Amino acid sequence: MTFELEQYTYSLHQTASGGLQIESSMFNNIRIVLCHTSHPGNIGSTARAMKVMGLTRLYLVNPQAFPDAHATALASSADDVLEQAVVCHSLSDALKGVGFAAALTARRRDLAAPSANLREAAEQMMQLAQSNEIAFVFGNETSGLSNEQVLQCNLLVHVPTNPDYSSLNLAAAVQLVTYELRMAAGLNKFEDWPEAPQLATQDQVEGMLEHLQETLIKIGYLNPDNPKRLMPKLRRLYQRNRLETEEIDLLRGIYTKTLKLTEK
User: Fold this and answer.
1) Which of 29, 147, 206, 262 sits at a 20 to 30 Å CA gap from 56?
2) How far apart (Å, rounded) are the C-alpha atoms in residues 173 and 4?
3) pTM score, two decimals?
């Protein structure tokens, strides 16, 4: 099945802190083109796959049913992508103004067009998209793109799938393409990670271990005259984990409470 890729324009600027400041206009040159899509649900799922990676420009060539309630339902809050989708009568119309188009295909083609795997293509396309309108064209769910449609594209792109089962769902193929483009654009940081924890210092860990040893002796679990290798094993147990200051405080609170109970 032949799928075709989408495109992306991006501009990245170094901030004073060395991070990347990404302008909202970076995706303005990227166009996703679906040809003769037979199931409206796939259009909705494509819109969702696009929006989650920051893309919004969807072109539909002779969709069987659009607009459609199934498309809206599966768009899952990506209704704005559907609302601004451009419906075209031919692939030529969908590619007007496009400087470079790529076709994603799972079949070997007896064509002279250059080919690349998706990761290689994503890097190349991101470079071109900085100053060119780019389009990725995806074919019908059953038959893919025709040879005539492929000939309108500049690059054949392949996803290295299982050779015994290479069929990709349309929206899944779009998701792969948009993800690789996002990675190629350098948008690989997740801003919602929690802040880095405050790790316990070595002396805090040592103090906790001494407190633990005192507690174990007090409750009769550790014989100070015959300790064997209990404390070295416990030390290794705690050192395998990056203890945080709050965790040290929690453990020492437990030890303190335990020692108080033994005094009664």
Assistant:
1) 147
2) 9
3) 0.69
